[in-house]
Backbone:
């Protein structure tokens, strides 16, 4: 049985998505019992490319420190619409920011954090310095633009 | 829109709504479900682990910011995140304006058969280099469809193109890779160019 689109259609699908039917568009039939010579050739050729691509298939997990930074910046209860960005853009700030979060849980909104943890004075913290600087680079994130 | 799709969109939006209200478990689920794939996408697009981390972090920061205003039914969170991450990758690539190094990436491998392992590692590094050498949009299409196995419709949504345009990018990318890796037993077509 030829593919529903005919020989050229199946060859086009194979050359576009590769030899594995799991990557084909859902409408394309898998397990076509009879293949033309051109289809067999295309399958073999694209399967070889797929195998090569899969040689670099290893995917490392999300680094734990990255996961922690992302979650530390997630909205806190009572702070809907106010997301205080974790200082990530400079490498030195990144490391200092992680230390600040671990030390005092400061990445959340001030109301919740103040109730849960005793907070140092703003001028004593990295985040506080950033937020109280004359030209606050994070000012846009503090506006309630909901 | 199919019922399954609609239900998936609503469940997605509900989880993001919970995260926006400070539900740490919901936020963690979103990160755990989407973070690894975003990281993989950014690593393959940029060839730089640290830059990939920054892209992933920035993508989630933007998600947290829009979370309170997220409207159910517009897009899956994963599609939105992929799109944001990809655009951030494009921005970085434009700023760098560098050709990614074709040098093999050193990888630790402690399995027996050192010589064979080295050959495997070198081949993997070469494959990665050839993928990284593709034009960005072809590279993105290959990463999304081959490595992340996104359905074509979803990959097209991430790239903000039609399915036909996605398929054109995929076909051209695969053709370029076949040509570049022809001496590795792929059987590239003579005379093909990117």
Residues:
């Amino acid at each position: 049985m030829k593919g529903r689109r005919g020989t050229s259609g199946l060859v086009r699908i194979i050359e576009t998505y590769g030899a594995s039917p799991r990557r084909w568009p859902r409408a394309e039939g898998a397990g076509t019992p009879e293949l033309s010579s051109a289809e067999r050739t295309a399958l073999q050729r694209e399967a070889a490319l797929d195998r090569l691509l899969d040689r670099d298939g290893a995917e490392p997990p999300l680094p734990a420190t990255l996961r922690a930074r992302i979650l530390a910046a997630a909205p806190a209860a009572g702070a809907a619409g106010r997301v205080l960005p974790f200082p990530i853009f400079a490498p030195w700030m990144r490391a200092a920011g992680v230390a600040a979060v671990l030390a005092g849980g400061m990445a959340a909104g001030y109301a919740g954090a103040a109730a849960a943890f005793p907070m140092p004075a703003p001028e004593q913290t990295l985040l506080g310095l950033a937020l109280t600087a004359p030209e606050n680079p994070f000012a846009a994130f503090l506006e309630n633009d909901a | 829109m199919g019922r399954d799709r609609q239900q998936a969109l609503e469940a997605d939006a509900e989880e993001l709504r919970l995260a926006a209200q400070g539900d740490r478990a919901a936020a963690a689920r979103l990160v755990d479900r989407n973070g690894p794939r975003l990281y993989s996408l950014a690593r393959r697009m940029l060839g730089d682990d640290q830059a990939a981390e920054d892209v992933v972090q920035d993508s989630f920061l933007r998600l947290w910011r829009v979370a309170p205003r997220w409207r159910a039914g517009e897009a899956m969170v994963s599609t939105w995140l992929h799109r944001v991450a990809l655009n951030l990758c494009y921005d970085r690539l434009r700023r760098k304006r560098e050709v990614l190094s074709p040098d093999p990436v050193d990888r630790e491998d402690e399995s027996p058969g050192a010589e064979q392992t080295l050959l495997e590692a070198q081949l993997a590094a070469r494959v990665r280099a050839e993928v990284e050498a593709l034009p960005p949009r072809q590279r993105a299409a290959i990463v999304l469809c081959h490595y992340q196995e996104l359905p074509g419709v979803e990959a097209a949504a991430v790239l903000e193109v039609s399915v036909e345009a996605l398929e054109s990018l995929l076909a051209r990318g695969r053709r370029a890779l076949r040509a570049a890796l022809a001496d590795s037993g792929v059987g590239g077509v003579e005379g093909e160019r990117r």
Notes: Chain A has seven helices and no strands. Residues 122-146 of chain A have pLDDT under 50 and may be disordered. The two ends of chain A are 57 Å apart (CA to CA). Chain A touches chain B through 48 residues (CB under 8 Å).
